[in-house]
Protein: Gliding motility-associated-like protein
Amino acid sequence: MLGAFSARAQTQFTYSTTCQNDSVRFEITPADLAGIDSVHWYFGDPASGSADTSRKIKGAHLYNTVGTYTVQLIVFKAGVPTTSTTSLTIVAPVIYDFGPTDQTICDSTTITLTAPTVAGATYEWQDGSTNQSILVDTMGTYKVKINGCLVPDSVNVFYTPVPKLDLGDSSLILCLGETLELDATAQNCTYLWNTGDTTPNIIVHSDVAMPSTQYIVTADAKGCGLYRDTIYIAFAGQQHPFSLGRDTILCPGESITVDATTPGATAYRWSNGATTPTTNIRSRWDLWVFVNINNTCEVLDTILIRFKPDKNLDLGNDTVVCKGETLVLKADFGTASYRWQDTSKQATYYVRQTGYYWVQAKVGRCIDSDTIHVQFEDTLRTNLGADTLLCIGEVYNLHPDGAGMQYKWQDSSSLPLFPVTQAGHYAIVATNSCGQSIDEVDITFQECGCQVYLPTAFTPNADGLNDYFRPKFRCAIADFELVLFNRWGQRIYYTTDPGVGWKGTWDKGRVPVGTYVWVMDYKIVATGEKVKKTGSVTVIY
Structure:
């Protein structure tokens, strides 16, 4: 459970722990996330150096020293900052032993767990209760925070219900060769039969006549008491082959008539209460029957009746998955045989690329199928470039590289290019189904003694006038690079020679009339200063 901070803050956020030497995670509450362009965390721990601040939406910091720290969050929405603060007290973890890690409670019993006494401390158990002690009456893992710091020890509590032992009729006479499983399975128990067996079930069988024998099972319900049941079984008569047939699977709405007719039968006892030679089943059953043969002994058999799931086969809605992830499709159609679009036959299918995927499931005579379209979308990687120093009077265009189709600038606009005309901190927030990506850049301006200019338009029509697009400069420059892009972001021209001009061609032809974006980098030889410029040029014929 996350800790909450004081009400002084304008943007609500929570913290995960107050423990010394543990990573404290800070998260803005969902109600306050909408409209955030960028954030800046200050963790109030200057001794940690550069780790004392973060620009991530979810902040995290490790406090090495016990004490009280002032945490500050600056949130930018539409370019407007708001500041929120809280006081966070970091404490040393309390070492305490609650006793056995695993404990058991029985029907109508409880245990009490008590946290160590710490003067003036606050307590918080995993269910949100705040007393020093907690009454345990349900199964679960119990742990407590003291002053917001989790005690390392915890207790796993298990529940043992009263076992309901039922070995069946108190007395049976089986025909020779019959086999009967006596099952005493119950939750959280150990077993001891009078035969010496310690398993939850045993098999009773004899090919020769045997007088009535007593079978007793004792179940120890993990300290909650001993429970017993008894049955008497004898073997007599002759061997009598008998079978209800094969297990079966039905489609919804179908029924089956199970026939136990056999020579010499004088009585029938079905698990569904029927006493006739046949019984009709319309639902799932582990159906068994005892058949009395010549009023001497009984034979028995069980048939499993299963139904195709009532729900239709469903792979889910068409979906978008992030690149690098794997989507697991589960047919989830019971004990069916499956066939996918690539002829594979497993119940689950691993999707790693865009496409249509279908599966057909067959349960007995019942067939169903479903199809899903999966599209993979790349994780966003926004990049505004490095912090940039420009000359006063220049216009610098920020490109939303790696931002996809849905993004906002720090002023909440969604311009395809953001023009920068004054110094400041600029940011972009991009979102898609894979999540959110944020990048920030600082732009500064200064007076420049050496300027390199590019024209805003030119006419590459071979008339000898203004046919080339190239820079103009009056000082020595080096490390020159010029790149031009079309409206779709494709690079259509690149040069490292400032004396070479662009003729308005691309891909062996002339580019159409329109506006093209350029990015220029160079170094002023006299000062060693590196300069980056961006702009646009219009091609006119």
Summary: Residues 4-9 have pLDDT under 50 and may be disordered. The radius of gyration is 39 Å. DSSP finds no helices and 49 strands in the chain. Residues 103-160 form one domain.
